[in-house]
Specification:
This protein is of the alpha+beta class. It is built from 15 helices and four strands.
Amino acid sequence: MPIETQNSTVVVRAALDEYERNHIHRLLELLWDKRAVLLRWIVAGVVLAIVLRLLLPSKYQSTTRVLPSENTSEAMMLAGAAAGTGMPNLGMVSDLLGMKTPGALCAAILRSDAVLDGVINRLDLRKVYGIKDYDRTRQTLADLTIINEDKKSGIVTLSVTDHDRNRAAAIANAYVAELDNVLQTLNTSAAHREREFLEKRIDVVKQNLSAAEKQLGQFSSKNSALDIKEQGKAAFEVAGKIEGELVVAQSELQGLRQIYGPDHPRVKSAEARVAQLRATAGKLGSTSPQTDGDSGLFSISRLPVVGVTYADLFREVKVQETIYEALLKEYEISKVEEAKATPRLRVIDYGKAPSHRSGPRLLILGAVCVWGCFVLGLIIVIARYKWDEAAPDSPWKQLGVRVAGDVRQSFSSNGNSPD
């Protein structure tokens, strides 16, 4: 490079440095001279922050913390295996399988549409937020919700912000309830499938038992069969007693006839007694379904037929009862096993109505307002300085004067025009 060019470059750089130093010096001098104006802008920022703090609606934040069980990941894997079988509400499973920890799974489910829609419907948030469609309501709710997962402890923290402290707590607790509902829906463990099978089987056996009991009841009512063994024993005892009484009555009748003759009242009474005993004995030995009105027993001749039918019906009832009792025991066991395998949430902290508002915070609001007013005052001070320093024939200054005049004239004409 020629020596003249190098010298020129050095001179230009030195001039630029000198101009920059002078420019900074003039800027600092200007700020010091206008310190009172800038101070008023700072005070205005403080006043603006206080006014906004009083006018803006308060915000309250409610926080809940949950700890998912260790079997949550296993339940999600089982749900993923069953996703291809057409089970409902498993659209999110493919996304959940990439999660490594139960906390990450729960955090992902909390952000899902299934949980958000459940919370929206539970508290009617579309009406609260004044939004008709679900998409915008979900977005609004998601913007007001903060979900964090502690990877070391596995605790999932959920914070909800709302203008109503009680509603903030209600939304936080609704998230937990809907999360638990979704976990139950995704539960496809073997114990769950066994419980569902047993429920269907118990319904069938219960119907069979009811039908068997109904048939036995109808047969027993028709044939007066309550206890075949005891009734048969009682029938034989009564029959033997009646036969004995009949023999005695016949002997007495023969004696009375020989003593008093056939027309004596005692003979007539004895004959009536013998006829009654013979009729009773005939009923006990009859094949008719009618029973003896005095004894309430069915006939001895029908005991084999009634006993066999009664035994078959009674055996069917006992078989169905045994099956029903065994299924009930298995059902209770399956419910216990399902409870062990079901992913559950342990709620560490339920959402509570906060006693203090979380926003807007006066310090943050004050810092933003003060800084904004200071920057605005700084821009105005520098702009006025540049305006005053500009030459009268500067095209930018002439344009500014022209624009200001037109604006002033426009306002004047609007103010003088009739209403």
